[in-house]
Structure to design on (268 residues):
């Protein structure tokens, strides 16, 4: 028993050695965005949700400690890119692969296209979006295929506002469609969170085919020198999936009729 405890202490200590300057604080800053859905939201001032519980499982399995901090998405990406912390929920692209070390995927949700009812259009592939003005979050990158289409022929209206402001743009006819993460639950929550949109919720519709499946990763700036610790994190993710624990976590967070509180406003 004593020998096992000593081995465990040596194991945990070696993990902290692997994460460079962050080891001294014994905590890895984990930057993310409040999605307002079961994926990640706030209850009683604390982050909750599927990703939060998955991170807690990784902590339990590895002995690492993370501190989740929520910012607007563009600031989250900027801080992570500057090496101020790891990012929870960053999608993987070739460009980002040059800056970050990515874990194995934790969890995925659909990114959907939402338009005004009566103005639906056929959508089977990205080429069907030619001539459609699409509103989306600045700094959001879905995948390399979508990024190439953005550079080539998509008509994208990017802004740093929240999803509520983009739905209102759609309502005003300033865009033809918007991207919403979190699938139908993401649309449901944003409509419920605003009195104007709630009163006009029947005017919006999600296209039947999702734009893409958005996988959530833990992304560590290469400047953090995460090293061997990432192998232990990935091993924990695999155990979570193979044991069914991640599936149980998802099952405990089935979408329900709740308006989640907003994340506290943080300064970098």
């Amino acid at each position: 028993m004593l020998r096992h405890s000593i081995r465990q202490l040596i194991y945990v200590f070696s993990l902290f050695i692997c994460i460079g300057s962050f080891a001294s604080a014994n905590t890895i800053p984990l930057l993310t965005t409040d999605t307002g859905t079961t994926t990640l939201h706030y209850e009683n001032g604390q982050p909750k949700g599927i990703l939060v519980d998955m991170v807690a499982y990784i902590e339990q399995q590895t002995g690492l400690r993370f501190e989740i901090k929520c910012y607007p998405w563009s600031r989250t990406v900027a801080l992570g890119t500057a090496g101020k912390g790891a990012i929870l929920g960053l999608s993987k692209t070739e460009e980002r692969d040059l800056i970050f070390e990515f874990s194995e995927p934790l969890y995925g949700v659909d990114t959907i296209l939402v338009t005004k009812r009566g103005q639906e259009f056929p959508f089977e592939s990205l080429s069907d979006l030619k001539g459609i003005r699409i509103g989306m979050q600045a700094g959001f990158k879905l995948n390399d295929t979508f990024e190439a289409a953005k550079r080539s022929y998509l008509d994208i209206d990017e802004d740093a506002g929240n999803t509520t402001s983009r739905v209102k743009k759609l309502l005003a006819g300033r865009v033809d469609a918007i991207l919403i993460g979190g699938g139908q639950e993401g649309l449901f929550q944003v409509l419920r969170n605003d009195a104007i949109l709630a009163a006009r919720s029947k005017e919006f519709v999600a296209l039947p085919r999702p734009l893409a499946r958005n996988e959530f990763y833990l992304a560590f700036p290469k400047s953090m020198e995460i090293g061997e610790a990432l192998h232990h994190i990935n091993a924990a993710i695999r155990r979570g999936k193979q044991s069914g624990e991640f599936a149980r976590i998802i099952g405990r967070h089935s979408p329900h009729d709740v308006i989640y509180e907003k994340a506290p406003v943080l300064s970098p």
Summary: DSSP finds ten helices and twelve strands in the chain.
